[in-house]
Amino acid sequence: MSEPLLKIENHHSAACGDPPIIDGSAEDCYVGYFENSFGEQWIFKLDRQTGRATLQGGDVGWNTKFEVTNGAVADLILGKEELFWLQACWLAGRKQVSRG
What we know:
disordered C terminus
């Protein structure tokens, strides 16, 4: 299929950096997207082979990657909805790891 499943515009200013280009076509990649009520955007990415997960957000600078461990990020304060979404991504992505 040549058409993308999802195309999302960046809502953040140029000062926030360039948003990541995500290629979710790899079998071992789980990708999640979230936008809160303020228009702040988040991208969750999990490598199923390594189990390594990262979180990127426009509001904190797109070029900064935060490590996700057990559905949480140590150095980042998230709102309740963002945290619920992050935990859902973690569980959904990790579930795929165990099916192997």
